[in-house]
Design brief:
Elements: H1 10-39, E1 44-45, E2 54-55, H2 80-83, H3 106-118, H4 125-132, H5 142-173
Antiparallel strand pairs: 1-2
């Protein structure tokens, strides 16, 4: 049954891949560090000084490179016209009869009912897709919220069915 299977989360899959890549890079850093330490010259006894002191040969440390600057943040161009709320069709004199009562507008009623079931449109679809994927720290993804809501409705339906069955059984038994 497809309802009981947990869908794989693409964000956690990607996080696992990045963690594996980080672990591989850390292992490579440790290996290279060990190789550098093995390649250092051994400490040698000087023959020029009697009862010689030891001299260490070291390679000069490379000059530290400046840390790369992070690039300036790139902001998305936002069309300000899309952010302004569009007004519904304004009431004109054609919408009212001679007594000043609004006329019955059946197509407008159908449009309002359709809008009710369709829900509001978003002004920023990229933000909605970002929230749906769970890209904001501390917020659960919308697909998880939908799954929780669906499970609650199923549990409520089962509970109401069992309650109705119990009431029916009590009614039949009392006869």
């Amino acid at each position: 049954m497809a309802w009981l299977k947990k869908k794989s989360d693409p964000l956690s899959d990607r996080a696992g891949a990045l963690n594996a890549e980080i672990a591989a890079l850390e292992a490579q850093i440790k290996r290279l560090d060990a190789q550098v330490q093995r390649d250092e010259h051994p400490r040698l006894r000087s023959t020029a000084v009697p009862h010689g002191a030891t001299i260490t040969h070291t390679t000069p440390a490379p000059e530290p490179r400046p840390a790369p600057r992070s690039p300036e943040p790139i902001f998305e161009e936002v069309d300000q016209d899309r952010l302004t709320e569009r007004h519904e069709n304004a009431s004109t004199m054609e919408h009212y009869n001679e007594l000043g009562v609004r006329k019955y507008d059946f197509p407008a009623l159908l449009q309002r009912v359709g809008d009710f079931f369709r829900g509001p449109t978003t002004v920023n679809p990229k933000l909605v897709s970002y929230l749906a994927a769970g890209g904001v720290q501390g917020l659960r993804p919308l697909r998880k919220e939908k799954r929780v809501a669906r499970n609650r409705v199923i549990a409520l339906a089962i509970f109401l069915f069992l309650m109705g069955l119990g009431v029916f059984y009590m009614f039949v038994r009392s006869r």
